[in-house]
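To assess whether ligand presence alters the predicted conformation, the chain was also submitted together with zinc ion. Input:
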Amino acid sequence: MIFFYSFLIFLFGASLGSFANVCIYRLPRDKQIISGRSFCPGCKKKINWYDNLPLISYILLNAKCRNCDRYISARYLIVELITAISFLFIFLCFKNLYTIIFLSILILILIMIFFIDLENFIIPDSLNFSIMGLALVKNFLPSFNTSLVHDINQSLIGGIIGYFSIWLIIFLYKTLKKIDGMGLGDAKLMAGIGLLFGWQSIPLVLFLSSILGLFFVAPSLLKKQKTMKSEIPFGPFIIIAMLIYFVFGDFFYGLILV
Ligand SMILES: [Zn+2]
C-alpha cells in the first residue's frame, strides 16, 4: 500500500512542479498566474492538455514544441522531477501530517525562487512574503521535531538578524566598492530563513552560501568570463545552504560546541 501512496504523491509532486514551471515563467513577467492557458513562448500557440502532462509530455515531444519545433527548456523537466522527488522524500521521512503539508508548500516556493533567481536575477516579493507568512504560521503549529524553531520570539529575532545581515553586506559593498553585490530580495529571503530557523541558523547559512557561491563563480572568474562586478544570482546558493542547514544543522552546531 505504501508503494501505491508513494506513487500518488510522486504524481502529485510532478503536477505541482508543472504549476511551479508556470509561476517561474510568469511571475517575473507580471502575468496572471491562474488565468490563461499555457502557450509556447516561440509560436504563442496554446498548448493542448495532452502535450502538457508533467514529465511524460516532455519526453514524448522529444523536448520540442509540436507546432513550431522550438526546443522546450530542460528546466521544465528538471523542476517537475525535483518537485516530485522532494514531495516523495518529505512524505516518506515525516509522520506528522502538519509537517508533511508545511514542508511540501515550503519546498515548492523554494524551488520557484531558485529557478526564477537563476534565470532572472530577481526574487519576487510575493514568494519571499509567502515564506515569511508560512514561517510565522509555523510558530502556532505543534512542534515538527526538526531544526525549525517554534518560539515566536526566537523566530522574530531570527527574521530581523537575517534581513540585516544581508543589508549590511549590501551597504558595505556600496560604500566601499561602489557596486551592488546583492539585492534586497536576498535580504528578504534571509529574513524568511531567520523566521524559520531562528538567528542561530544565519551565520552558518551565510557562510555556506558564500562558499558555494565562490566555488561556482571561481572557474568563470579565472577564465575572465566574469568579473567581480558581474551579477550572480545569490538566492540559489542561499537555498542550498538552507537545505544543508535543515538536514545537518544540529550536526554542525554539535561540532562547534564540542
Ligand atoms: Zn511553438
